[in-house]
Design brief:
Blueprint lengths: L1 H27 L17 H9 L25 E4 L7 E4 L9 E6 L4 E11 L7 E5 L2 E2 L6 E2 L4 E6 L4 E4 L6 E5 L3 E10 L4 E10 L14 E10 L5 E8 L15 E8 L2 E8 H4 L4 E5 L5 E9 L3 E7 L11 E8 L7 H4 L2 E7 L2 E3 L4 E12 L2 H6 L1 H6 L3 H4 L8 H15 L6 H47 L4 H15 L11 H19 L23 E6 L4 H6 L3 E4 L1 H15 L6 H7 L4 H19 L5 H33 L3 H8 L8 H32 L7
Helix pairs in contact: 1-15, 8-9, 8-11, 9-10, 9-16, 10-18, 11-16, 13-15, 13-16
Length: 712
């Protein structure tokens, strides 16, 4: 009993140390980022700068209503103004209604010519499916009134004039509107009204009808054009913002992140940054087109959805550089709450582009606004060329290798293709496959454990005698016990293999967890329709106001306690039953020694772990809980079958004729296995080392007795 208590205590301490390490790791080794790009300088166009300065109004003059005049060069520098439109009525592109040929619906605000809301087709806010999913939403500004919208063109800088103007708080003029596109424009002028440049911004939403046998695409194109309206060259830099308003999908942990994919020496590598990593930063450089590096795309994602933004038609690393940097920016809304203050986005900063008089310069972006779908990313040629699948596999970790996660996703899709096309049944079928593969290992380990327990029970008197004889010499004691095991043909290291089936299940659980978190088809997928309505979330039989339990909510539950979840409790009960019906060891030996054998210890540890599993998986996806519970239930049947086999084997040996026993006693022993031979060799080597160590120690003792002592 005392030994079992020590094992349970050691297990509890190990878990506590693990969670303490998770809490301290982020503080001990904070993530480090590269610094932002230094500002570049260009020679000033003297004639145009003098013209702007000459027409500059006196200090304190009011700007024209509806226009914005800003500068970032100093209080005494000349100012520019931006003229646009006057209508603030929003524009709608696309539709998510039944029969719509568009994959999404966009609401565009003329203020900043930005997207204030985006809804996507085929996905819904809740399980009730009464409202299309809003993937992009506005975010409140840090200071003052107003909101921040997606894809705002923040500013344009005239590098050779050392002037810049903001474009995100200007009302743009709607210049063209078709069912598939909308164009907006503004004009940068001197204070006297002389035009300098015209910026045109165009959104294009190509029709993409839904086809049952074809993967759905979610494409959106964005183009910015700068036209030089002066008689001198202009050198311009544009700052283009990405998406905002992504919401948290996973209640257990922060799932929103920014993922950047860069070509480094011709190879695409993607890196993800969770929002807490960016929280205390102002601008974080994610990549650039400097040297051999090229920015492939940048994405903002949550658990199931992504908005991917990259340079138009950039599918190869050997392209001309166009962007001096891509930076992650925290938005910090005015309400200051921890949930909202972590809202971030990213910004593309173009390299200085020289535009001749009367000429124009255009920069385009390819956008993907939709679900994180493995099928879509790997079957659509354009997505596969850009390797959009990185937004999914970037989250895979060492306990759940990408190949194993992909296999889990493939098997789930394969089993889902069988009528009645239910992912819950697909998970149960996956359990049967995994259990069937691991059954020979499980059966062999349990049988070996039973045999070893019986052998150890017969050797217990000799072991106790060896311990008493060498009570003051631990090395000699271990050597004597190993000799007893060797003479009896017992492999003490074989007991470690009994944990192999459970250890093999751990990466499968991790891979299934990642598959549930990465398969958009699992989101809102029901099992029965009235109890488990969403296999990707908790079963939530009864919901209530969230309750935050210190330490437990953060490190064990992975979030607040907001619902009564029955499935994790049933999982714990199934684990207790599985432990109860495990094969038992030698009961007679247990009664004689007063100590439980290894099988009994394993049973008690599993029963103790069942309570921990309930807490750890309480807010976990129902699909994962369903898998583990079904595995436990099938495990009970498997244990019953193994116990029956062991019982039949014992009865067969009991009825064996005595002549067989006499033949075995005459030396007809079974040949040792390769593992047994290897262990025997290791034991012989250890025995030699012990003997040599004893000789050296004896020689030192003799030298000390003679007064010589060891040489210095």
């Amino acid at each position: 009993m005392q030994q079992t208590k020590r094992m349970i205590l050691a297990f509890t301490v190990s878990i506590a140390v693990f969670y303490l390490w998770l809490a301290l790791a982020s503080y001990l080794w904070p993530h480090k980022f590269a610094t932002t790009r230094p500002a570049t300088t260009q020679p000033v166009a003297t004639q145009l700068a003098d013209l702007i300065a000459a027409t500059q109004p006196a200090t304190g003059a009011a700007s024209t209503p509806g226009n914005v005049t800003t500068t970032s060069v100093g209080e005494d520098s000349p100012r520019l103004r931006v003229s646009g439109g006057t209508s603030t009525e929003t524009i709608t592109l696309g539709s998510v209604g039944r029969g719509s040929p568009y994959p999404m619906q966009l609401v565009i605000d003329p203020l900043g010519a930005a997207i204030t809301e985006a809804q996507i087709r085929g996905h819904h806010e809740t399980v009730r499916k009464d409202q299309p999913y809003r993937i992009l939403t506005p975010v409140a500004r840090t200071r003052g009134d107003g909101i921040i919208n997606s894809f705002e063109t923040r500013k344009i800088r005239f590098e050779n004039l050392k002037l810049e103007v903001n474009l995100d708080d200007v009302v743009w003029q709607l210049s063209e509107l078709t069912p598939d596109s909308a164009s907006f424009s503004v004009t940068v002028q001197t204070s006297a009204g002389r035009p300098i440049a015209r910026i045109t911004k165009t959104y294009t939403l190509p029709p993409q009808p839904e086809a049952p046998k074809k993967p759905q695409t979610y494409d959106l194109d964005l183009t910015l054009t700068v036209e030089n309206l002066t008689t001198e060259p202009l050198t311009t830099i544009l700052v283009q913002r990405g998406p905002v308003g992504f919401r948290k999908e996973d209640q257990r942990a922060e799932d929103r992140k920014i993922i950047v994919a860069n070509w480094q020496n011709g190879r695409l590598n993607a890196t993800g940054h969770l929002r807490p990593e960016i929280h205390d930063k102002t601008e974080i450089r994610l990549g650039s087109d400097e040297g051999a590096s090229r920015v492939a795309w940048v994405a903002e994602t949550n658990k199931y959805f992504a908005c991917i933004m990259g340079p138009a038609e950039r599918v190869q690393p050997n392209v001309e550089p166009a962007f001096s940097s891509v930076e992650a920016v925290e938005l910090q809304p005015s309400n200051g709450s921890n949930e909202e203050r972590s809202a971030v986005t990213f910004e593309f900063v173009t390299m200085p582009q020289s535009i001749a008089p009367g000429a124009s310069f255009a920069v385009g972006f390819d956008l993907y606004v939709g679900p994180k779908s493995k099928k879509t990313f790997q079957s659509v040629q354009a997505y596969d060329q850009k390797d959009y699948y990185w937004v999914i596999k970037e989250s895979f970790y060492f306990c759940a290798p990408g190949g194993l996660v992909s296999l889990m996703m493939r098997l789930l899709d394969l089993f889902h293709g069988i009528p009645p096309h239910n992912y819950g049944l697909a998970i149960i079928m996956l359990v049967l496959v995994v259990r069937g593969i691991l059954h020979p290992i499980t059966k062999k380990s349990q049988i070996n454990m039973m045999k070893m327990q019986k052998q150890v029970a017969t050797l217990q008197p000799k072991i106790d005698a060896a311990r008493a004889k060498y009570s003051n010499d631990r090395l000699a004691q271990q050597q004597a016990i190993m000799e007893i095991y060797q003479e009896a043909g017992v492999n003490p290291a074989g007991s470690m293999l009994n944990c192999l089936p459970l250890l093999l299940q751990v990466p499968i659980w991790g891979a299934l967890w990642m598959a549930l978190s990465s398969t958009i088809e699992m989101r809102h997928a029901p099992f029965d329709g009235f109890w488990i309505k969403d296999l990707a979330g908790p079963d939530a039989l009864i919901t209530f106001r969230p309750v935050w339990i210190p330490f437990i909510s953060h490190y064990v539950l992975g979030g607040p306690l907001s619902s009564f979840n029955l499935l994790p409790i049933l999982l714990g009960i199934s684990q207790i039953l599985q432990a109860k019906y495990m094969p038992r060891g030698n009961v007679q030996a247990q009664q004689q020694t007063g100590q439980p054998d290894q099988l009994e210890q394993q049973r008690k540890v599993m029963m103790f772990m069942s309570g921990f599993f309930v807490l750890m998986l309480y807010n976990a996806p129902s699909g994962l809980n369903l898998y583990i519970m079904a595995s436990n239930l099938f495990g009970i049947l498997e244990q019953w079958r193994i116990r029956k086999h062991i019982r039949e084997e014992e009865e067969r040996l009991a009825k064996e004729p005595p002549v067989t026993a006499r033949r075995r006693g005459q030396g007809e022993q079974p040949q040792p296995s390769r593992m047994q031979r290897w262990l025997q060799e290791k034991m012989k080597e250890l025995q030699k080392q012990v003997e040599e160590a004893k000789k050296v120690q004896s020689q030192r003792d003799r030298d000390r007795d003679r007064g010589k002592g060891p040489r210095k």
